[in-house]
Amino acid sequence: MRIKRIVPAPPLQDVFPSVDLSQMDALIARYKGKKGKLIPLLQGTQALFGYIPREAFLKLNRETGLSLSELYGVATFYAQFRLTPSGKHIIKMCHGTACHVQNVTAITDELLDFLEVKDGGTTADGLFTVETVACLGCCSLAPVMMVDEETHGKLTPKEAVKIIKEIRRNEIQ
Amino acid sequence: MKKTKVIVGLGSCGIAAGAGKTYQEFDRIRKADRLDFELRKTSCVGMCFREPLVEIIDDSGSYLYGQVDPSKADEIIEKHIKNFSPIPEYIVQSEKYPSADESFFEGQVKIALRNCGYMDPENIEEYEARSGYAAIRKIAGNHLSPETVIQMVIDSGLRGRGGGGFQTGLKWKFARNYDAPQKYVICNADEGDPGAFMDRSILEGDPHSVLEGMILCGYSIGASEGYIYCRAEYPLAIKRLNIALDQARTKGYLGKDLFGIRGFHFDIRIKEGAGAFVCGEETALIASIEGRRGMPRRRPPFPAQSGLWKSPTNINNVETLVNIPWIIFNGPEAYARLGTEKSKGTKVFALTGKIKHGGLVEVPMGITIKDIIYKLGGGIQGDKKFKAVQLGGPSGGCVPEYLSHTIVDYDSVTATGAIMGSGGMVVMDETTCVVDIARFFLDFTQKESCGKCTFCRIGTKRMLEILTRITEGEGQEGDIELLEELAQNIKDSSLCGLGQTAPNPVLTTLKYFRDEYEAHIRDKKCPALSCKKLLTYQVDPEKCTGCMSCTKGCPVDAIEGGKRETHFIHQDICIQCGVCFTRCKFGAIQIS
Ligand SMILES: Cc1cc2nc3c(=O)[nH]c(=O)nc-3n(C[C@H](O)[C@H](O)[C@H](O)COP(=O)(O)O)c2cc1C
Ligand code: FES
């Protein structure tokens, strides 16, 4: 079922960096009073912080009148929304049909192994979050992965690791 | 002498294959060497297997070059552009130099894809030069009534390309007949079927056609607002749609009293999806635009009566909509001449999987699956044995090789147990395990079920558990019957298409490949040698060099043997993870 990423316990304040909520003011002003604003508000918030912090939910509730249960209900329904901070780079492994048939699983396994994370997890250095997604629309280049906005096709496990290694090297320098 | 044109295909797939770098290289040399050629962009012509594609048009004709990386770009500039001598080895299509790849275009009839790869999608003038916005002008110029336009769409025989296959003209008529102060047009660009990408390609390659289709729909049903609900996974499509919207507004093609038709107001907004397959279903999509969880509701009332914000709403798929301007401009008869009795026109298919020439093809309805795979698609990768083709994604099914003479039209495909769906065609060869594919789809639908209906929520989970067990060698007698019973119950008691069709991948594979299920359950064997847990890994002493790569990789130390000694795998310790197989550079690990 879709709703499964419910965070079991309220996250501790000090694990997450504190965010500057005033960044949301322009966003709220833009959508306030408009029909169908809930999802764009959540999308906008995530665009600002990379995830939707707990305090942001509270602020949205206070300033737009949308109920917390509605906000949280929608945020946990859609795969796009994150409730915890993500790594600096997001790696999306395509597990659509075409990529599955071309054995993307082996690549994902290799990458998870290399980065020492689980699916959906973030590396210890905070650089990468790995997610599996269904179809990036480049099926004829399967297997495919997307790092941030860049799509890489016709991958092998080795190449995938190489691409990530290179990004990490650039980050460290 | 005309200026030479260099046109680089910059669709998402081209960019993923490196077209961005190719474009930059052409640009760099053009500037460095002060060359006088025109550098342009286009989108994907569907020939994904040869990306990045570059077309060169000069006085002597047009030449399409394939797999152009920066170094080939240098060569092409040197030989073709500077010295007028084309390089036949790299050419995939041209009049002068025949290429083996040309078969990809033979038999294709491009209507929905008429502009994709043939113009710059970010340039409205190029669209207009290719009869863009001519259909709506024809209507305005001839004072054709909305009813006439709807009749034209009915006469064309066009059926919805989003999966349902409902008569588009009739749907418009329903929406027209409801009287309301406000009506809406929605373009369904959620493209959820993993393995289909024609909608993305159209949005990226020909966004104005989508807008024109929506404008025509708005005029016909009497709507003044349109929404494009596009997946967030398609950033380039959204970018190009936004550019197209701006251009259309500037030109006055969106707004008030459009094309001189007094009182015809229409504008379009983009709504980004947030990642939920079920939102492709029309009532869930509406809920999502309204800012709620995307959960389908009971129909009736159909959206034509009560849709977005409870107003009459018409929803069409991207491919459906881009056919409309062509039909209006060229006349419904021209469209109805193509195809079969009950399925008119053309259909775009996304050819993927174990196929040589993967990409997008548009063919008239009525062509056989075999022709698509062998004539256009060039056959199976590595000339392996063709086993089955999956049609219709998670709602569809597998059509086995011996039924590949089936023609593609709605009824013939449905008769096999699969569905036409959105046109995803995932080709499988002898190394693909159909039980694993069924498991893969159930995993998908189970995750994507919105949870409203019990059978869809829990039934799919139970089916997935059984299938997982079977692929891991824990299958039991009675599993097949249990799967069939669950499948029937889920079909019968789900509200929306997601649940009603979720068991199809299992049912069709059971119908055509029951023996493979039995081999997994009874003999604990995977005939396709794909389900890892059912395989035995052994070292071929002839090929083993004793390099110890596998021993080091083995997570459970099941492999014995020191440097330069022939290795040996202890079957009682081996967990069939396959690491040794991927690590071995000498092909010395044998699977059986
Ligand atoms: C679970 C589910 C997912 C769907 N996904 C899509 C989709 O991604 N794109 C689409 O155009 N139609 C999709 N549909 C079909 C739509 O509900 C609807 O029938 C279609 O958009 C109507 O447009 P058409 O008549 O032009 O085909 C889906 C249906 C179901 C039940
Ligand atoms: S299945 Fe991977 S990109 Fe479509």
Explained architecture:
The complex is a heterodimer of chains A (173) and B (592). Chain A has 173 residues and is an alpha+beta fold. Chain A folds into two domains: 20-77, no CATH class; 89-172, Glutaredoxin (3-Layer(aba) Sandwich). Chain A is built from seven helices and four strands; from the N terminus they run H-H-H-H-E-H-H-E-E-E-H. A four-stranded mixed beta sheet of chain A has the order 2-1-3-4, covered by helices on one side. The radius of gyration of chain A is 18 Å and the shape is elongated. Chain B is of the alpha/beta class and 592 residues long. Chain B has five domains: 5-101, Glutaredoxin (3-Layer(aba) Sandwich); 124-336, Rossmann fold (3-Layer(aba) Sandwich), CATH 3.40.50.11540; 346-429, Ubiquitin-like (UB roll); 434-523, Up-down Bundle (de novo design (two linked rop proteins)); 535-591, Alpha-Beta Plaits (2-Layer Sandwich). Chain B is 39% helix and 15% strand. Chain B has helices at residues 12-16, 19-32, 70-83, 124-129, 134-141, 146-156, 168-177, 198-205, 207-221, 235-251, 282-289, 318-330, 332-336, 369-376, 410-415, 434-448, 454-471, 479-492, 497-501, 504-522, 549-553, 579-583; strands at 4-9, 37-42, 54-58, 61-65, 91-94, 184-189, 225-230, 267-272, 313-317, 346-353, 359-364, 386-391, 397-400, 424-429, 537-539, 559-560, 568-569, 589-591. In chain B, strand 10 and strand 11 (359-364) form a beta hairpin. The longest helix of chain B is centred in the last third of the chain and has 19 residues, at 504-522. The radius of gyration of chain B is 26 Å and the shape is globular. Chain B starts with a strand and ends with a strand. The mean pLDDT of chain B is 95.
